[in-house]
Design a protein that fits this description.
mainly alpha, about 130 residues, about 0% strand
């Protein structure tokens, strides 16, 4: 019983974090991101989402996958999105003063990225 309750609690927390990330990712993509930033993120998403890729996109946000990041996921993603910007500059612009708390949740980051990629893919063809 305890394990089932804790698993349900974790799933609920993950969904809340993912949804909050989606909201923040959409807002960042629509208001602040550059085309280059969105394109870089979308390219990384496409490469890691390919069925042959190991580790896959989803594994990058799964603490049980065994992947380790120098500095953390937020540093890796900041480098992907904008290598000329510092981690702090990118995330504080995108998320505000509470960025450190938000990016510490893997599902928040996944929701953020997937929503931003969705915005890019929905509008990038209009730029050609």
């Amino acid at each position: 019983m305890l394990v089932q309750r804790l698993l349900a609690s974790q799933a609920s927390s993950d969904q809340v974090d993912f949804t909050a990330g989606e909201f923040a990712g959409r807002e960042w993509a629509e208001k602040y991101a550059t085309a280059r930033q969105l394109k870089r993120l979308a390219c990384q998403f496409d490469v890691l989402s390919a069925s042959f890729q190991n580790p896959s996109w989803i594994q990058y946000f799964d603490d049980s996958s065994g992947l380790h990041f120098i500095g953390g996921r937020e540093d890796w993603l900041a480098e992907v999105i904008d290598p000329s910007s510092s981690t702090e500059d990118l995330w504080s612009c995108a998320l505000g003063d509470d960025w450190k708390t938000l990016v510490s949740e893997p599902m928040f980051l996944r929701g953020f990225c997937e929503a931003a990629v969705e915005i890019w893919k929905g509008h990038s063809s209009a730029m050609n």
